[in-house]
Design brief:
- By secondary structure, this protein is α/β, with parallel strands linked by helices.
- It has helices spanning 24-36, 42-52, 61-76, 135-140, 164-182, 222-234, 285-304, 326-334, 365-375, 395-399, 414-417, 430-448; strands at 80-93, 97-102, 107-109, 111-113, 125-132, 150-153, 187-191, 216-220, 238-243, 246-260, 268-275, 312-318, 339-345, 353-359, 403-409.
- An 8-stranded mixed β-sheet has the order 3-2-9-5-6-7-8-4, with helices on both faces.
- Helix 2 (42-52) crosses helix 7.
- It is elongated, with a radius of gyration of 23 Å.
- The two termini are 27 Å apart.
Length: 459
Amino acid sequence: MRHTIAATLVPALLLAAAPVLAAPDRIAAAATLRDKALDTGAYALLEDLTTTVGQRLAATPAEQRGRDWAVKAMKAAGLVNIKVEPFPMPVWERGIETAEVVGAFPQKLTIAALGYSGATPAAGITAPVAYFADYAALEAAAPGSLAGKIAFIDHRMMRAQDGSSYGTNGVVRRAGPALAASKGAVATLIRSIGTDNHRNPHTGSTVWQDRKALTAAAALSVPDAEQLARLVARGPVTLKLVITPTFNPDGQSANVSGEIPGSGARSEIIVIGGHLDSWDLATGTIDDGAGMAITLSAARAIKDAGLKPRRTIRVVFWGAEEAGIWGGRAYAEAHKAENIVLAAESDFGADRVWRVSSKVAETGLPLIAEINRTLAPLGVAPTRDNGAGGGADVAPLGAMGAGILELEQDGTRYFDLHHTPDDTFDKVDKAQLDQNVAAWAAAVWLAASDDRPLRTKAN
């Protein structure tokens, strides 16, 4: 996530004139790609994925169907060297999930179990609620003070173009249930990590250091969380929870990749892509079917234009990102000996690209300046600094020294839909999706046709 752009902070180096190494035909080709890619097949590709495959929960047969779809889509786009690379991982699947207030003011609440949640007994549990206004309040609770209670962690998440409020509030979901359990809670409910006001709970993974310590954990929809907070303010509340997910430690996921081979002698590789898996509440359209459609369509635009990149362009669809970045980590480990010079992931929805970010060697900053200038006609703001972290799946490659490029998307409405039953195809704006493809096609071509060093660490 990034802070709001401040033009006065843009390093002068990034705005400098193009260096001698920047051939005019590279820039012209990028501009042509940018303009032609404003009308692409990405929308139809995304419709096909979300209609014929649908949700793609990690390490399940649904994700396997997504991999089969990915192989066919890459072949249709003209990519070669297509590979499916499996890796082991556990499989978590949701079961029954209900919550209701018992005693005074009886009523049902809408919840969704969090990924890797433990289970209640089949008949459920009934316990009093302990309310915490935020994560800090839970941290301050005394050890053992939640014995026999259901912890309810509230918070306030705000809309932001750069999604920065997710970074502030995400700890409630990721770490809150384990922290509550460590203080004696028999289960945990959180206010959904979302910005909508629909009765759609937002799922997502929670993290446990010890599976023996697992308790049931679920997210309340935002309106239901606000309702529960009002009930707690009126006096003691008792809830009955039934949450019955299953867990199998012996599952398998996989990464899928295909290439446009480069002509250079140094076997340099640019990795782009999105994650193939999704949560199971909807069709995984904005998270992250859109990222797959955008990056594959960008590669296809370069291929269809007859352009020959110097660096290999490799499109990767990572498996099992939602369950804990299993695919991104497995991919980085499997390919650590390769000369991956730049990595970029589209994983923030389907709305327009509004800013460029990067983390490359100083020798690569003139390339970033070229990308800034080429994308400006699309309404894309220039790089603020050179400290990008990259998407979840490319971060492990960045840690190994690959340069990072981010084409940051407008996240103002992203967390209305993120991890909810509303993550469906009808939410996509075709013009904004195509603007993404135009930006990606131009930027990837400029990087793939260049020869300046980009890695931040030597291989």
